[in-house]
Amino acid sequence: MTATRGLVRHKLYSVINIVGFSIALAAAILITLYVRDQLSYDAWIPGTSHLYRLERAGQVPGHGLLRTAMAPFPVVKVVGEQVPGVKAFTHVMPEQMTVRTGDRSFHEIVTVVDPGFFGIIRLPLVEGDPARVLSQPESIVLSQTVAHKLFGQADPVGRTVAVSPDHNDACGGEDTSCLDASYLLTVTGVVRDLPHNTQLIADLVMPNTSRADGLSAREKASDWRANDGDYGYLELSANAKPEAVTAAIGPLVDRSFDYHEYGLTAPVSHSERYSLTRFRDVHLSSDETYGMRPAGSWAVVYGLSIIALLIVLVASCNFMNLATARATLRTREIALRKITGAGRRQIIAQFLGEAVVTTLVSLAIALSLVEVLLPAFGRLLDEPIVLHYRDFRLVVELTAGAVAVGLLSGFYPALVISALRPVEGLKPGASVRSGSGLLRRYWSSRNSPFPSALRLPPWLSSGRSISLGTRISASGATES
Fold first, then answer.
1. What is the DSSP letter of 460?
2. 319: nearest Cα among 2, 23, 18
3. Average pLDDT, the chain
């Protein structure tokens, strides 16, 4: 209550601090929401702690090794089948296709995968068994949005859609007649709409055993140099080491095909490197080149985090400066409180309470600012950033952060002001010295009302005292 009364009594001072903290906290919250969003990519998919993406880096003349997010189809297959420690593997290849139902047609991205895809990458299915949903060659799984677009409110499972490839290479050679071919696929499952924070595209998912997958029907399965959009994922055993699996890939690829057939003068391991990236780390670590979705960046995450911290620290320093500058107006108040029985701990608690109440009020205002600015912030970043108050962990983090900022900001002024000696504080002209030092160089004079243990040596202080009875004229001169 004492802390609240202090804020109400000094309205202008409180408003200045609250406005400063509100703006700083609003900026920090917006940055925090973006950073949390970047760190949340694919973390919501269960069972991915041992899942990795196989990636290739190829030698480009004049540019060194160019890292890509893709790996040739046969490399993924041979690694998945022959390298010890690999439990399962799957291919993922987004292809542009025309999807028809009735007299309507849509150009969609159909993700072509292995039949066991949903057993390895456990996307949430609304309808269908993950182990069997793609077991039939001519089957397809739709997202909730696509199912509604194609069939309205009707149950899509058991219905058929016609698909045809939009890729000329699917025909092979110069023959383009297959572009007119349509393949009927039966809807066997519905997958929940994926949130934006994922590396995957899964609006329509089709097995690579279907005749509609023209790309897989080609010689791609035996083309060790292909790099046309195939993403390979490996699930390792719990005791398998990714470093050991990576080390085995190069020699295995060298043994698996004759490099002379591709016009190479040396084994492929001399010009290519393969690596594994944890599934949850893909967005920020290795999606820069040819990823399914735009990549993030650890540098941006760290940079923005530092900026948010600096913004809050600047606001805290402003609060400390204002609080210590106002100490000259509160010397008699503190002296009287001590004379009436208040201990130093109570004085410190009062000033810390004022600081915490200030930051909590600022947090409420900052959240209101965030609600207003969030839509524009999301459009600027091209990310649907949202603030969920049902996220208990986020609410606790924001509240705890505001309290911590209040304690950090109020501790130094509370320590300074609570050190006042009651007798010295009631003397005519009692003052608190100001200056510049490690935090603030003050208390340099022998006449300071603060104990010598808190004073800096004279050689560190260059401050001037301002008496309570001193008035500063418009010209800058001081008058008694």
1. G
2. 18
3. 80
